[in-house]
Amino acid sequence: MARSTGTPTISDVAKAARVSRQTVSNVINRPDLVRPETRRRVEGAIERLRYRPHASARRLRTRRSSTIGIRLDPVSANGISGSVLDGFLHALTERAAERGIRILLYAANGIDAELAEFRRLIDESEVDGFVVTSTTYGDRRISWLVEQRIPFVSFGRPWGVADMTDRRYRWVDVDGAAGVRMATEHVQSLGAREVAFVGWPSPSGIGEERRQGWIESCGLAPERMAELSVGVADEATEAARAVAELLDSSRPPDAFVCASDSLALGARMALVERGLELPVVGFDDTPVAAAMGLSSVSQPLSDVAEAVLELLMGPDGGVVIDDPDRLAGPTHRLLQPELVVRGEGASAREEGKETCDEDA
Amino acid sequence: MARSTGTPTISDVAKAARVSRQTVSNVINRPDLVRPETRRRVEGAIERLRYRPHASARRLRTRRSSTIGIRLDPVSANGISGSVLDGFLHALTERAAERGIRILLYAANGIDAELAEFRRLIDESEVDGFVVTSTTYGDRRISWLVEQRIPFVSFGRPWGVADMTDRRYRWVDVDGAAGVRMATEHVQSLGAREVAFVGWPSPSGIGEERRQGWIESCGLAPERMAELSVGVADEATEAARAVAELLDSSRPPDAFVCASDSLALGARMALVERGLELPVVGFDDTPVAAAMGLSSVSQPLSDVAEAVLELLMGPDGGVVIDDPDRLAGPTHRLLQPELVVRGEGASAREEGKETCDEDA
After folding, report:
1. What residues pair up with B40 in beta bridges, in sequence order?
2. Which CATH number is B67-169+302-335 given?
3. Residues in B 42-81 with any Cβ partner in A closer than 8 A
4. Of the candidates B304, B315, B265, B347, which has an alpha carbon nearest to the alpha carbon of residue B94?
5. Is B350 on the interface with A (CB under 8 A)?
6. Other beta carbons less than 10 A from residue A20's beta carbon
7. Same fold? B2-45, B67-169+302-335
8. Which residue does chain A place closest to B5, by CA atoms?
9. What residues in A contact B354, CB-CB < 8 Å?
């Protein structure tokens, strides 16, 4: 290729700086071994000649790729909620760049294919570690990575392990229970007394945790809780059907707190159909929530990305730490979400408009 | 590290297969040089020992990384429309995996930082080529990549170049004019006669092209076109304001075709405020359009991803082709979008519900 003609070599740099090739190599790999004055001369020559130590050669030497692997699914898992993982990927790419780290995407169809991909990417020194997302109960990927001593951090707890503080598990997550508690207390502050929870069917680690936040804050008797807690697939139409049933019951709830924006959208649709205006809160603060004027619990994705990198490489490092015991402090972080209030909140009281939507 | 202990080497494979190291190397790199019978024996040993040629060593030998670079911005550029590029990234990762190619993400703050990143990623053989997105008029990245003879394909035309069929430019795009033409003809089939176009301010390559589709199909006199074509920033509130002005004018339009779903959402908001039910069509078929029941023009992202890879590596290849002249056929593809009809279309006539939304 034309562009590789005349690429400067380490010998060119050595000649220009009047030092040995070994000294150039030391300046690049072990600068502490080189006298400052010599180092400056070599660095000047590197700069002048635009010499780039070949990344692959460096990888062979150091077995470091300065790259982190993360799986990307063929399509966003869910049109509405999928944007959270996309948002995380954007934040991760930016934060990693600040540490000189790049993100490698791989595809994998199923768990076994993903384990094979882990193996290959590590064996071939393509990546130094992984970020695992969408963790499930008893996630085989996590137990396998721990067993193989392959560095990783999960965005999402290692659901189902006996001890989540076990240092072999490095994880970052957002406190879903706290988020739903905030949502429940918010609709209570608007006057709601009988707050329903619209979540997913069990078992779902994330879903159960979010439901827990409602259980802790709804202030209802256990029998009433059983009536006002529903679990449906993460689709607006499913949620609309379940919410319609609650609304048409003899004792309808007076607010809806939901495990996702898809579910919240469904709740809103059921309310609109009946001409009712009751508070609805979603989760994940997706563009749909913003567009629909729905309040929603927001995950701090940039902070999640930063915490993931800290648990992988230390507070400021650019090198993946293989042994979690070499990290200072806990090997996990539970971050707090925020409630974004729209529409039915305080400001809506002033700005709210009465309009009729024939299409909704 | 524990995991590298006992990793089989090329010598282990040679010994197990009773051949020289050179023969093993030939089987891996130049299999055509090796007799089939010997090749099978070596491949058996590679399989049995789980030998993996070290990727970095292979990169040094071949100067190939089997990796393609693409920039990812800190956050999705636009909450609603940004999901198109995210959707493309998902499709690209999957399609690339089918060819044994991985996607490397990098961040860059501004054009100069991106050019530096191109340089570094190529010089260090981190990637074999690039996919460039969000192309602009006179895009400096594109002229630079062409000048440096660095392989790339853009998703988006090289707006502003004299000859878009010039083989040095490899690009894939979706025919935005055709999409807006379909949208305009759709609302006309519903009875609309005075279709307005809500686009962005000039100059925007994509925006002008989409407007062109409306110009070709709206059937209005030039003075009337000037009245019914508006250009605003890509935000629902901006579009709502502009559409409200048109609706409150002495001769309001009877349908709205929009350059994005954000704009379509704004148009819908302005209509709902006035209790009007006129057809609105968006562009990009984002989750917001689906959630709001808005018709929208959809880009075939999986086909775009496949076409990008074909222009980079040939119809089935897994190796980036440096010289576009070595590709058979044209070096660009203009793909056709689809119109996704919702709500005000035929099915809405049957399913449409009259409901009142106090919150919208």
Report:
1. none
2. 3.40.50.2300
3. 52-57, 59-60, 63, 65, 67, 72-76, 79-80
4. B304
5. no
6. 11
7. no
8. A123
9. 358
DSSP at B203:
P
In this prediction the ipTM stands at 0.77
CATH number of A176-299+340-351: 3.40.50.2300
Strands B129-132 and B152-155: parallel
B2-45 CATH: 1.10.260
Query: What is the full per-residue pLDDT of chain A (360 aa) written as tens digits?
Result: 333 446 677 888 899 999 988 888 788 767 777 888 898 899 889 888 877 666 556 665 666 789 999 999 877 555 555 678 889 999 999 999 999 899 999 999 899 999 999 998 998 888 999 999 989 889 999 999 999 999 999 999 998 899 999 999 999 999 999 999 999 999 999 999 999 999 999 777 788 999 999 999 999 999 999 999 999 998 888 999 999 999 999 999 999 999 999 899 899 889 988 889 999 999 999 887 887 789 999 999 999 999 999 999 998 888 999 999 999 999 999 999 999 999 744 343 333 333 333 333
- Fold exhibited by the domain A67-169+301-334: Rossmann fold (3.40.50)
C-alpha dihedral (A254, A260, A266, A267), degrees to nearest 10: 0
Q: Is B253 helix (H, G, I), strand (E, B) or coil?
A: coil
Domain locations along chain B: 2-45, 67-169+302-335, 176-299+340-351
Nearest chain B residue to A53, by CA: B124
The answer to whether B351 faces chain A, any CB pair under 8 Å, is: no
